[in-house]
Amino acid sequence: MHVLEHKHQIARLKEELSSPKRVLITTHQGPDGDAMGASLAFYQFLKKMGHDVAVVTPNDYPEFLNWLPHNGDVVNYMRQKVLAEDLIANADYIFHLDYNQLRRSADMTNTLANATAVRVMIDHHPEPNLLVKYSFSDTTASSTCELLLTIMQAWNNDLIDSDIATCIYTGVMTDTGCFSFPNATARTFTVASVLLSYGIDRTMIYDRIYDNFSAQRMRLMGYCLNDKMEVFPEYRTALISLNLEEQRRYDFVVGDSEGFVNLPLSIKGIRFSAFFLEKEDKVKISFRSKGDFSTNDFARKHFKGGGHLNASGGETKMALDAAIRQFRELLPAYQKALNAL
Ligand code: 5GP
Ligand code: MN
Fold first, then answer.
1. What share of the chain has pLDDT > 90, as a percent?
2. Ion ligand 2, residues whose Cβ is below 5 A away
């Protein structure tokens, strides 16, 4: 992390934002807990400073996030395009949270590219590729929320309150798999401790995120494990896929497949897992790994995606069957890497 550089940037931003500004906060498509936690935490923080703030997401996010403080203020580009375009065009500042490639804004990409606002990126993914005036990029941060907390502490610690802490904790918890993934560091636990000191209800947060599914979603999970999981022991790899018909059969809603990609990693010896989700216009793929196998490299190279070492995603316009076939055919080339200790 470039602490000094971050400090200088915060000092400059503090000065530039010392009078009320129109601020737009946005994040990547298919927002997750970190994306929404960071967006809504920063929304409250900037509002408390007196700015005119809006959060715009490119599209829908899972229902298990819609309880976050101030969720009702979020503007969804897909559903409120006119309002969202107006907010983007008239913003003085645009904050890009939890992503570092403009095309991750999906349908909002062009509008964002044409905006005249001053841009700021706050992100923890590798290889940033966003033209911004201020760049807060820290790949050692477990989550954008962890990085954002340190930025807010340096900016104005007094403004952090229990609602903001609740949003930040949600992002840290979801991006670290409840503090179990290797990205959870000593700093992450220190951050968690600071957040708890605001009196947040961490069991409530856990419950709303992880124990908030429909019965059909649990049955879908069972179906995936029983009927859809393919294991390739020679490559220490497993995959699960879901086509549109199967999603309809189980009343699938956004967020229902959250976490499915992690399930095969519970099998002894499995170190690489892929989950294929058929959508109307594309196939979305999630990758997870254990150890040194880089899902980021794999996703970038073969599926127009990216992410972190152990958690990445990508997509393809290929048909579902063809995408799965391509994945299978790629495995022999990685056999050595997947079997390395
Ligand atoms: P998930 O599999 O949960 O959708 O995403 C896992 C990680 O990969 C997240 O950090 C997410 O930001 C990143 N990711 C997912 N899909 C894509 C993609 O299409 N492109 C890029 N660059 N990153 C992605
Ligand atoms: Mn994140």
1. 99
2. 34, 98, 143-144, 175
Position 19 scores a pLDDT of 98
Q: What CATH architecture does domain 3-210 belong to?
A: Alpha-Beta Complex (3.90)
CATH T-level fold of 215-339: Diaminopimelate Epimerase; Chain A, domain 1 (3.10.310)
Question: What's the full length of the chain, in residues?
Answer: 341
Give residue limits of the domains in the chain.
3-210, 215-339
Query: Distance (Å, rounded) from C-alpha 281 to C-alpha 318?
Result: 9
Does residue 170 have a pLDDT over 80?
yes
- Give the pLDDT confidence of 198-240 residue by residue, as tens digits: 999 999 999 999 999 999 999 999 999 999 999 999 999 999 9
pLDDT at 1 over 60: no
Residue 30 Cα: closest atom of ligand 1? 4
d(CA 154, CA 150): 6
Instruction: Determine the distance separating the centroid of ligand 1 and the alpha carbon of 19, expressed in angstroms.
Output: 36
Q: Which helix (H) or strand (E) holds 325?
A: helix 320-330
Q: DSSP state, 128? A: -
Question: Which atom from ligand 1 is nearest to the alpha carbon of 125?
Answer: 10
Q: For 120-160, write each residue's pLDDT tens digit.
A: 999 999 999 999 999 999 999 999 999 999 999 999 999 99
Q: What is the pTM of this model?
A: 0.96
C-alpha span between 313 and 309 (Å, rounded): 11
Tokens representing 257 are 């497949």
Nearest CA to ligand 1 atom 17: 313
Burial of 27 (0-12, 13-18, 19+ CB in 10 A): buried
DSSP string, 55-101: EEESS---GGGTTSTTGGG-EETTT-HHHHHHHHHT-SEEEEES--B
User: In this predicted model, what pLDDT tens digit does every residue of 76-98 receive, in sequence order?
Assistant: 999 999 999 999 999 999 999 99
Please provide residue 55's backbone torsions phi and psi, each rounded to the nearest 5 degrees. -110, 125
